[in-house]
């Protein structure tokens, strides 16, 4: 076992939870009574309710999470409970961590569901602002492929390292190729007017534990001239 965690030398500084979430230019503090939700008198029914569904919403029981790192495999499950909430979606749109929220029926709408969703909406807006800082646009011009050297590509095979790439290609200027692992071959994607190619990056693959793949792709511009794309 690695060395145990040292006790903090001083009292940790408490982060102001309201500092970053603006509501009409005012500081906003969510009024959610977590003690009421995590009351020890009702968790069993909530556990059963959550287990009926597969999309990771609602109650998570004590010890269900085990957030240790790979180097400390002898540590025990976390002593915490949780409640997962996300965008409210109908049953027809169920997917990985997506679907209807699972609300505790005994708590009043105004006391729990409404303030939780209000805070969720604020965090969504904050998240989009943070993503704006990370987002960028790249304008690309590919030279004509000369077939002079087998090591030269317009864009050599790679996966995108970020979150999402939204790629718009010059209509008719094909050249984008996607590696199809199941059949071990490159698939040519046609460059169609008004159609985006959406690449999931390495970050999304990490976030989903490998469920969504960051696909290998490359560009070979065989059009006999230049090729433009933006993404
Ligand atoms: Fe790429």
From TrEMBL:
Q: Does the keyword Oxidoreductase apply?
A: yes
Answer whether the UniProt record assigns the keyword Repeat to this protein. Answer: no
Q: Which domain of life is it from?
A: Eukaryota
- Which PROSITE patterns would you find in this protein's record? FE2OG_OXY (PS51471)
Kindly state which keywords UniProt assigns to this record, in alphabetical order.
Iron, Metal-binding, Oxidoreductase
Domain named Fe2OG dioxygenase: residues = 129-231
Single GO term (MF):
oxidoreductase activity
**Which InterPro entries has this protein been placed in?**
IPNS-like_FE2OG_OXY, IPNS-like_sf, Iron_ascorbate_oxido_reductase, Oxoglu/Fe-dep_dioxygenase_dom
Q: Give the transmembrane ranges.
A: none
Protein family (similarity comment):
Belongs to the iron/ascorbate-dependent oxidoreductase family.
Its name, as the record gives it, is Fe2OG dioxygenase domain-containing protein
**To which species is this protein native?**
Coniella lustricola
């Amino acid at each position: 076992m690695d060395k145990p965690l040292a006790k903090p030398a001083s009292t940790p500084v408490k982060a102001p939870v309201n500092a970053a979430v603006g509501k009409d230019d005012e500081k906003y503090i969510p009024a959610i009574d977590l003690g009421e939700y995590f009351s020890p008198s009702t968790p069993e029914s909530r556990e059963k309710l959550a287990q009926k569904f597969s999309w990771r919403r609602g109650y998570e029981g004590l010890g269900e999470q085990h957030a240790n790192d790979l180097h400390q495999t002898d540590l025990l499950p976390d002593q915490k409970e949780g409640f997962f909430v996300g965008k409210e979606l109908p049953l027809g749109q169920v997917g990985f961590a997506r679907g209807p929220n699972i609300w505790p029926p005994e708590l009043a709408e105004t006391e729990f569901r409404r303030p939780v969703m209000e805070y969720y909406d604020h965090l969504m807006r904050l998240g989009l602002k943070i993503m704006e800082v990370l987002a960028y646009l790249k304008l690309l011009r590919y030279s004509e492929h000369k077939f002079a050297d087998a090591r030269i590509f317009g864009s050599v095979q790679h996966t995108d390292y970020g979150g999402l790439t939204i790629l718009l290609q010059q209509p008719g200027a094909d050249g984008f190729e996607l590696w199809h692992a199941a059949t071990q071959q490159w698939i040519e994607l046609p460059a169609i007017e008004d159609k985006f190619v959406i690449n999931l990056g390495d970050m999304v693959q990490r976030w989903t534990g490998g469920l969504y793949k960051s696909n290998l792709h490359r560009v070979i511009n065989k059009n006999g001239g230049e090729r433009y794309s933006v993404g």
